[in-house]
Amino acid sequence: MPAKIKRGDKVVVLAGKDRGKQGTVRAVINKDNRVLVEGVNIIKRHQRARQQGQASQIIEREAPIHMSNVMLIDPSNNQPTRVGFRRREDGSMVRVGKRSGEDIE
Questions:
Q1: Given 16, 18, 27, 39, which residue has the most CB atoms within 10 angstroms?
Q2: Cβ partners under 8 Å of residue 2, min gap 6
Q3: CA 102 to each of CA 1, 75, 82, 84: distance values in angstroms, whole numbers, following the listed order
Q4: Residues 79-88: what's their mean pLDDT?
């Protein structure tokens, strides 16, 4: 069974401090059912100086969020949609937007 959310998909955040924000999926972590969304769930990490003369710094980066907290945006109508699957004539599976009923490539 193919994945419902893939790298490069546009998604909207459903829950949490960034609810309502949209972004592109940068990475999918299947083991933990998490996704890394560009510009969403920004955390700050303090980094100590590693060498003499190097300055300490605060690094901001995205943290993964659970897949259940994001919903795919249907490319045909730019609305959030659930994802289903349909089998093509050649036997391969394709993702289908439940809202519009059209294929998602």
A1: 18
A2: 85, 93, 95
A3: 18, 9, 12, 10
A4: 93
